[in-house]
Amino acid sequence: MISMTFKARKLLDEALALPPEERADIAAVLLDSLDAHEDEGVEEAWAEEIARRIQEVESGAVKAIPWAEARRRLHQVLDARKRP
């Protein structure tokens, strides 16, 4: 785990004891707080990227896969990188 202060660790432990929906809400607020410090053009760039990806899916240029399959593939890639 990453290094953090006692206060931060205590707060994290308390947050992890919350139900999943409340943890997700806290995570979203924390991420939003980081976004407030990003360049102004970042949000617009993400909106354009999202629109482009939606168009690719809707046109059939790319095919969506279930999360379980995507997760399995990601684990395969990460496991392969761990091997010498």
Q: Can you put this structure into words, describing what you see?
A:
75% of the residues lie in helices and 0% in strands. The protein is mainly α and 84 residues long. It has one domain (6-82). The longest helix has 20 residues, at 40-59. The chain is extended.
What attributes does this structure have?
84 residues; mainly alpha; 75% helix
Summed up, the domain count is 1
Q: Low-confidence spans: pLDDT under 50, at least 5 residues?
A: none
N- to C-terminal distance: 23 Å
Query: Helix count, per DSSP?
Result: 4
Strand content: under 5%
Mind telling me the C-alpha Rg? 18 Å
H and E string: HHHH
Please describe the biggest sheet, giving its number of strands, its sense, and whether it closes into a barrel: none
According to DSSP, the number of beta strands is 0
Q: What is the helical fraction, as a range of percent?
A: over 70%
Estimate the global geometry from the Cα principal axes. Answer: extended
Structural class: mainly alpha
List the helices and strands and how they pair.
Blueprint: H1 6-16, H2 20-35, H3 40-59, H4 67-82
Kindly summarize this structure in a few lines:
The chain is mostly helical. 75% of the residues lie in helices and 0% in strands. The chain has helices at residues 6-16, 20-35, 40-59, 67-82.
